[in-house]
Each structure stands twice: as structure tokens, then as C-alpha cells.
Amino acid sequence: MVGFLCSQALRSLCYDEPWVEITELYVVPAHRGRGAGRALVGAAMRRAQEAGASEVVLRTNARNSAAQNLFARIGLEAAPQLVFRTFFRGAA
Questions:
Q1: CA dihedral for 65, 68, 72, 77, sign (positive or negative)
Q2: How far is CA 19 from CA 35, 36, 70, 74, 88, in A?
Q3: Tens of pLDDT along the chain (92 residues)?
Q4: What does the angle CA 61 – CA 19 – CA 76 come to, to the nearest 5 degrees?
Q5: Among 23, 54, 67, 79, which residue is least crowded by beta carbons within 10 Å?
Q6: Entry pTM
């Protein structure tokens, strides 16, 4: 195994079509730059389209320039969004 990708299809009462979020993408460092990431994302995008998804969304760290370069080469567009979050410590 040289890498993996996790995704989830999401539905909302507010929208007719589902959308897909890629939640994880990892390629073993020794295999990076050989097309594995491109193949994984491409397969996820094909499956999303076949499932009727309206879009594919993913997030990456603002400092992860390697991932950002990969996504740009694949043809993904950077979305002008802010992510807000909170953490619950010690929740059961």
C-alpha cells in the first residue's frame, strides 16, 4: 500500500444533491510525486460524480504547500472560506 484516501458523502435538508468531502489523503513519502495522490483523488471524484454529488470539497492546512500544489495541478479551485471550530476537552 502506498497511500489512502477517505471520503464521505453528505446530504442536507437544504440542498437536493449530496456533496462529497475528502477527509484524509496520505501517500507514503517514498512514493510521493509518482501519481498516487492524483490517482486517489481522481478515483474519489469519479465515485462522487457517479453518486450524483454536486461537488467535492476538501480541506488542507494552509502551510501544506505540497498538497495545495497537487490539488491545483488536478484542477481543483481554492474556495474562499473560513473554517471556525471549537474543541471539547474531556467530553465523554
A1: negative
A2: 25, 23, 21, 19, 27
A3: 999 999 999 999 998 999 999 999 999 999 999 999 999 999 999 999 999 999 999 989 889 998 999 999 999 999 888 888 898 987 66
A4: 45
A5: 79
A6: 0.84
